[in-house]
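Regression test case RT-17, inverse folding.

Input:
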């Protein structure tokens, strides 16, 4: 057996087939061994890094904050806080599989024989846990450094005031304090291609930056005014009606609802006769700004008019959340219709706005939807007086009131020594649902080079369902967060037999459902092209920020939500997406994408005509010939002047 192992090792060293796997990737390990590769096993202690070590690492990888194995740049690699204890234990359990999954003597023996060899291939959860002296010597690595511009929601912590000027990083801040996240990098898209990011990425703001917080407040007010016009048009005959009412039969203990304000008027009362006129005036002024009519004259912002916005919003809450009726004339109704039509031509995201002005808050320091607000209600904090219970603890949460969002940002800043930063993003209030259940799509893609940019799109994907029917009257995570790690905490009270028990569908099952709806063309003609455009746009914006490394590659997982018009909306991009199967569908698809990734990055080098499975080339940038430096061969030619 020793002779056989030695011969195998000698052949693997000669053919440069030594690999290392860090993390729960039995499929990768099995496929590489089948190709004749020999594993150099990394010490198991490298899988777990102490929180204090993170500040000493020169490289950090980031992830978006969904069902992934990577972590955000502000989060310790292995969280030990009580609120994430369950997920932390799960991560450690997954990571320990490397030490236990294969104790076959021959592989153990070969691993010992190659302990002094530098791996030719590395598949790891995070680069920061790999010896930084060893890493540059590895030929092929499955991770890129410095992905904060692509895979984080806000980037790393910034100085107060949001300065972006050059200069050295301030003392006490992270090495990425001058960098941007996806939220910011997409704003540079017009410099790279003529695509409006508002057509595929819901608008978002970083609450830790004063200018962006002010921009959010203005956006919230304008959205409330537009929502009021929509509410005014919801009429049955000549009888005005309010917004969607909370179903009495669907009450769930612990639900986070839209916190109605106390009202002295019943839902059938007709109040606020001036409210609609103010909303019409604001929307008209906003259209003028969108048409650049404010350039040559001193026109105030629509949100800096004489309107008392505190009163306006409180009255809007009564109408939107309590059903207080609006009385409008035929002329006002026509004005509302005309204004909304004009706004729709100017605002690509009007189609995702509903009537309740819902926004979603996401902390930059959490992933997998973790945090008490993601699944536990009723907890309070000593400094959280006056804040809804679900807003007292860090986690993804939906909010319908401006004061809720601002208190959350203020509360987090005052409580967190690390300066936890929050993103507030417009919630898609009009998503496409399947059997009245919200879902999102996990779409894989691989980047094999950044210079020139080379991207491969995976033709297979999967849907993740929520546990309870979609409703904007209930804002608890079971109805609105599709993360598998969130939904596994909930039990479906009255399950729809048509919804898959494991809450997972493949894209082919989804296509069959679309065919039953008479929209079989929507997947190939609307959704897939939209997802490709969003992915490529995000990559182009982030390319100059990413640490490009020849020979490396990375498998990403993008999360998309589908609107009622079948258009995809990019939510976030995750580095190192989870490969741990949560269902029969993901067990098959995760194995397939790992197999095809190895075909793409390994087999294709030796045989360009080999099968790469479900991958297709999305984009390959034309190589640009490098120009010779000025002055390399600088000559002056001519003849001397002769004196007369």
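Golden output:
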């Amino acid at each position: 057996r020793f002779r056989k192992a030695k011969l195998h090792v000698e052949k693997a060293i000669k053919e440069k087939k030594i690999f290392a796997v860090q993390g729960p990737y039995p499929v990768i390990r099995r496929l590489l061994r089948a190709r004749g590769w020999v594993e150099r096993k990394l010490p198991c202690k490298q899988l777990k890094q102490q929180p204090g070590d993170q500040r000493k690492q020169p490289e950090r990888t980031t992830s978006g904050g969904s069902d992934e194995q990577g972590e955000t740049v502000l989060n310790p690699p292995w969280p030990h806080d009580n609120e994430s204890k369950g997920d932390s234990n799960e991560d450690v359990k997954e990571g320990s599989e490397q030490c236990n999954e294969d104790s076959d003597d021959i592989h153990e023996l070969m691993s010992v024989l190659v302990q002094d060899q530098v791996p030719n291939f590395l598949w790891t959860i995070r680069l920061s846990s790999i010896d930084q002296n060893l890493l540059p010597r590895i030929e092929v690595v499955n991770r890129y450094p410095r992905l904060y511009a692509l895979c984080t929601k806000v980037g790393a912590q910034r100085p107060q005031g949001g300065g972006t000027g050059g200069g050295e990083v301030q003392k006490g801040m992270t090495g990425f304090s001058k960098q941007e996240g996806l939220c910011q990098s997409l704003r540079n898209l017009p410099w790279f291609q003529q695509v409006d990011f508002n057509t595929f990425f819901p608008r978002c703001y970083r609450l830790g930056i004063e200018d962006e917080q002010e921009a959010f407040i203005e956006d919230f007010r304008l959205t409330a005014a537009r929502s009021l016009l929509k509410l005014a048009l919801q009429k049955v005959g000549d009888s005005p009606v309010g917004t969607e009412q909370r179903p009495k039969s669907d009450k769930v203990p612990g639900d986070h609802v839209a916190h109605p304000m106390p009202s002295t008027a019943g839902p059938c009362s007709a109040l606020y006769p001036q409210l609609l006129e103010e909303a019409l005036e604001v929307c008209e002024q906003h259209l003028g700004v969108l048409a650049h009519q404010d350039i040559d004259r001193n026109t105030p912002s629509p949100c800096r008019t004489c309107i008392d916005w505190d009163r306006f919003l409180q009255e809007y809450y009564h109408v939107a959340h309590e059903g207080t009726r609006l009385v409008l004339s035929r002329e006002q109704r026509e004005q509302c219709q005309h204004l909304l039509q004009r706004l729709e031509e100017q605002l690509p995201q009007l189609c995702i706005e509903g009537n309740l002005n819902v926004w979603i808050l996401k902390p930059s320091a959490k992933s997998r939807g973790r945090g008490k607000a993601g699944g536990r209600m009723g907890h309070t904090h000593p400094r959280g007086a006056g804040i809804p219970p679900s807003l007292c603890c860090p986690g993804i949460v939906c909010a319908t009131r401006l004061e809720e969002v601002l208190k959350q940002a203020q509360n987090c800043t005052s409580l967190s020594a690390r300066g936890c930063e929050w993103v507030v993003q417009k919630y898609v209030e009009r998503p496409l649902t399947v059997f009245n259940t919200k879902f999102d799509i996990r779409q894989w893609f691989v980047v094999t080079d950044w210079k020139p940019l080379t991207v491969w799109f995976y033709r297979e994907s999967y849907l993740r369902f929520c546990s309870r029917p979609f409703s904007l009257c209930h804002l608890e995570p079971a109805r609105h967060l599709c993360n598998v790690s969130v939904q596994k905490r909930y039990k479906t009270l009255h399950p729809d037999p048509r919804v898959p028990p494991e809450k997972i569908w493949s894209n082919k099952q989804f296509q069959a459902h679309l065919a039953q709806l008479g929209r079989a063309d929507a997947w190939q003609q609307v959704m897939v092209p939209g997802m490709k455009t969003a992915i490529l746009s995000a990559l182009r914006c982030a390319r100059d920020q990413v640490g490009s490394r020849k020979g490396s590659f990375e498998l990403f997982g993008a999360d998309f939500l589908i609107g009622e018009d079948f258009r995809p909306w990019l939510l976030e991009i995750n580095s190192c997406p989870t490969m741990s199967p949560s269902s029969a569908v993901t067990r098959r698809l995760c194995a397939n994408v790992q197999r095809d990734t190895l075909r793409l990055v390994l087999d294709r080098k030796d045989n360009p005509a080999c099968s790469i499975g479900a991958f297709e080339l999305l984009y390959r940038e034309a190589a640009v010939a490098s120009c010779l430096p000025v002055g390399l061969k600088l000559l002056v030619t001519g003849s001397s002047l002769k004196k007369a």
